[in-house]
Every structure is written in C-alpha cells, then in structure tokens.
Design brief:
Largest sheet: 2 strands, antiparallel
Strand order of the largest sheet: 1-2
Oligomer: single chain
C-alpha cells in the first residue's frame, strides 16, 4: 500500500507513540508502584540520553529522508530505512531476552524502560509535529540531520 510521503511522518509518529506507551507500561509494571527520587532521576537521565542524543536526531534524519523521496506516494513501511528496522529488531530481541531470563533486576528495568519509553513518546510527538508543519506548508526541521 502506498501513501503520500508526508503521511509517513504521521505513521512514524503513531508507531513511535505506541512503542513508547508499551515500553513505559513495561517499566511501570517492573516498578511495582514504587518510585524513589533516585529511580526518577535515573529515568530522567535515560530519557535525556536517548531523546537528545539518539531519537531527536533520528526524527530529523528520517524527516529529511522521507521528504526527499522523488515519488509523491511511497510504500507505507518506508517511514524507517533498513538500518532502522534492523536496530529495532535487535533492541526488541535484547529487551525481551533480558526480561524473559531475568538478566537484570526489575528496579533497573523499571528505570531504564520508563526513560526509554518517555524518549520514544517524545520522538513520536516530534514526528507528529513535523507532519503538521509539512501539512500546513510551514516545514522547519525539528533538528538538523
């Protein structure tokens, strides 16, 4: 199925929001309702590292790639490139393995997943922001690629 290339930004935003919500949910379950200042601070550090050093830049990179497609309509799964799909598969496999085989204490999973999930949610919101700007003809990159 093909969609207008600007709608790939919307699709990416929704996918990242869903992923972020799922990851935060796992983190909250692992915390068992107990959050201390150190846990919240660690989650905030994870958020900052992932959003500002990785995901924020990916939003800019993918936005420029998507809007650079020559065809007006493109395959719906082209909101990611091959490298991103591979990284996503590795991260999911690693996360599932760590939880399934109890390779980390749940309190660490809670802190990490809360921060990571929040960063994914923020990236999803950034993709939606980009979509709205493109749709209104006011495109300004969120971050430079």
């Amino acid at each position: 199925m093909k969609v207008r290339k600007d709608w790939l930004l919307f699709i990416a935003g929704i996918v990242w929001l869903i992923a972020g919500g799922n990851i935060i949910h796992i983190g909250l379950q692992a915390a068992h309702g107990v959050w201390h200042f150190v846990s919240l601070a660690a989650a905030a550090v994870v958020f900052c590292l992932f959003f500002f050093l990785i995901f924020g830049r990916l939003v800019g990179k993918h936005t420029h790639r998507i809007l650079g497609y020559h065809d007006e309509k493109v395959w719906v799964f082209k909101f990611f490139d091959i490298k991103s799909y591979i990284i996503m598969a590795i991260m999911m496999t690693l996360g599932i393995t760590i939880r399934k085989f109890h390779l980390m204490p749940e309190r660490y999973i809670a802190m990490f997943y809360a921060g990571l999930g929040a960063a994914l949610l923020a990236a999803g919101a950034a993709f939606l922001y980009q979509f709205l700007k493109v749709d209104r003809g006011q495109f300004k990159p969120f971050v430079k690629a």
